[in-house]
Design goal:
The chain has 141 residues and is an alpha/beta fold. The protein has one domain: 3-Layer(aba) Sandwich (Rossmann fold), CATH 3.40.50. It contains four helices and seven strands; from the N terminus they run E-H-E-H-E-E-H-H-E-E-E. It has a seven-stranded mixed β-sheet with strand order 1-7-6-2-5-4-3. Helix 1 packs across helix 2. The protein is globular.
Length: 141
């Protein structure tokens, strides 16, 4: 599925809509350059999961956990990691077993750690505010 958005609001809406199709334990692997809209998408995802917390990029903390919604959301930023081995050192297996939605930014750094049924979300800047969002690994409704 490919969607073109023309504003941050529209990008959040795509995340919101996707949240309704996810089951607990789903891993979302995000791909996109700095400023592409990965965190903006995740904000919409959180809203769709019923999370009312402020969503921020976990660039320095690596992981932010949000447990106030229907399904918990665990938001990762792998920019500072160098390989999947680093991910296992922070307890990746434990996160996979918690039944939360796992949203992983900078996924290309830890691709080897993802389960086969990972949903992949590529966000590309097309113009200043326009984004091309390609989602694979989930059935369209």
């Amino acid at each position: 599925m490919t969607v073109v958005t023309n504003s941050e609001r529209e990008t959040r809406q795509v995340g919101f809509d996707l949240a309704k199709k996810l089951r607990p334990g789903t891993v979302l692997a995000f791909y996109g350059d700095l400023g592409a809209g990965k965190t903006t998408f995740t904000k919409g995802l959180a809203m769709g999961l019923g999370i009312d917390s402020e969503i921020t990029s976990p660039t320095y903390t690596i992981v932010n956990e949000y447990e106030t919604g229907e399904t918990p959301l665990i938001h990762f930023d792998m920019y500072r990691l160098t390989s999947a081995d680093d991910l296992f050192e922070i307890g990746w297996e434990d996160y996979l077993e918690r039944g939360a939605i796992l949203a992983v930014e900078w996924s290309e750094r830890v691709e080897a750690a993802f389960p086969k049924d990972t949903v992949r979300i590529k966000i590309e800047k097309n113009k200043d505010t326009q984004r091309v969002i390609t989602i694979t690994g989930i059935e369209e409704a």
